[in-house]
Amino acid sequence: MSFIHEIVKAAKKRGNEALLIEVQGSRLVPMTGAEFLARVARVRAALEARGVQPGDRVGLLAPNSSDWAVMDVALLAHGAIVVPLYSRQDPRQLAAMLGDAAATLVLASDSQLAAALPGEFKVLTFDQALATSGAGPVPGVFDALPEAPATIIYTSGTSGEPKGVVLSRTNVDFMLAVTVARIREMTVHERAEDRVFHYLPFCFAGSRIMLWSQLWRGNPLYVSTDLNNLQEEMRTAKPHYFLNVPVLLERIQRGVESKLSNMGGPIRGLYQRAQAAYLKPDRSALSMREKMVLMLAQKLLFPRIRHMLGENLEFLVCGSARLSEDVQRWFTMIGMPVYQVYGLTETTGIVTIDDTKNVGLGRVGYAVPGCELKLSEEGELLCRGPNIFTGYWGRPDATAQVLVNGWLRTGDQAELDSRGSLRVIGRLKDVIVPASGHNVAPAPIEDLLQQAAEGIQQAVVVGHGRPYLTALVTGDVDPNLLDRALEEIRAGLPHYQRVRKLYRAPEPFTPENGLLTANQKLRRAMIEARYRDAIEEMYR
User: Fold this and answer.
1) What is the number of structural domains in the chain?
2) Burial profile 124-135: b = 16 or more Cβ within 10 angstroms, e = fewer
3) Last residue of a domain, one of 395, 428, 461
4) d(Cα 24, Cα 376) in Å, to the nearest integer?
5) How does DSSP assign 90-131, residue by residue?
6) How much is the pTM?
7) pLDDT for 97-144, tens place per residue?
8) Could you tell me the CA-to-CA distances from 288 to 282, 283, 295 in Å, in that order?
């Protein structure tokens, strides 16, 4: 049976128990398995009434909610190919994606989102889809061929036009078997069900795999409904674990350290001395005093910090972008494991997952079972396995560029150690070659800049073909601190990796101003174009 059959079977088994739980501030709003299936039936009746056929592409445009999952499962069970869309994306980009996929219908969460789309698209709001009368028992799942497309997910487009990544039912079946097995390995305690909180948009591949995994398990998923109120939502959900992007973990660390700095002298002093001891390269050489301080913090202070993060929280999962070693080290110090996941949309969201018993800072784990990894002569990561996508929708030439003899060219520069542990250095296309001729990966230097001065939120290193490197930074940071930060990081870098000058951009890089992708990746070409004059000034 396909993953859709398994999800429907799990929902039936839940019956009157919660399958999805919306977190609305301090309130929990459950949707039972029976209610979920009843809503799926009504949506399928609406699809039938509007002539949607198996194989038709249907857009799904909405923020996260329980009904997002209802629409997704209804479409998949009907045999349609789901095209999930980011609700905060520019309407012109949404129109381009829907046009590229030749979508026959769009399911939109509300009339405001529906109105943002051009008139050539047929749009049905969630309320309209759910208002269909005469829906009887849940119809059977359409039995599509295993190789049939299940979904087309449009890539974020860090440069160039977004492309539709076609994932087959076989891709998803394989990946869900892997993720469900790994979730069991990660979970510390045996229990009937996990409390899993989710805030990342369901339209992204890794996020969708998390949703499907929990539905497949019949394990309730606590769904965030307000990204501006995450702190209260997490207190309400009381999760055992949840999926993250690095930017949230960085904010959590800064928030905790800010609170500690405002506390009384003894607590602040204990934290600072314990952290200094923990960060020493050789902790076996600590003095007796340093060992006692660290033991005291591990017994009295770090448990309090963990409780601040969540009373039930056992571990965190992080993916989507590069996680700073220092941030992961901080969470390790306080006793909160962060397990990294690495993957692309083209790999059904996942290539590697951390081994819980063998986590390496700065590394993103080992290939999932059934997936092979190797490096090209240029150091590009190549992968092969049942998780590799079938191709880009309607783009055979683009597909042929990345799929070579069964191997996917990821575009990532990476290192593999003798045990198969993966470290991602950065995007090959992001590699800077200054006038010296050296190859410079910007991401590690950007990490150093962000850590060197309090207040730096983002950093982008530039200098391709230039005599030296410069950088753009964002954040509320003292100019004198910027100068000191440069001096600090220069000392530990070879001459060709040293940043000579900095420019502080007047606004952060965001998806709304076009300088970040929807899943928080830097759009380097757009940033350099926006700040061309400032960059030129740094080289005069």
Assistant:
1) 3
2) bbbeebbebeeb
3) 428
4) 48
5) -HHHHHHHHHHHT-SEEEESSHHHHHTS-TTS-EEEHHHHHT
6) 0.85
7) 999 999 999 999 999 999 989 888 999 999 999 997 655 555 688 988
8) 14, 11, 10
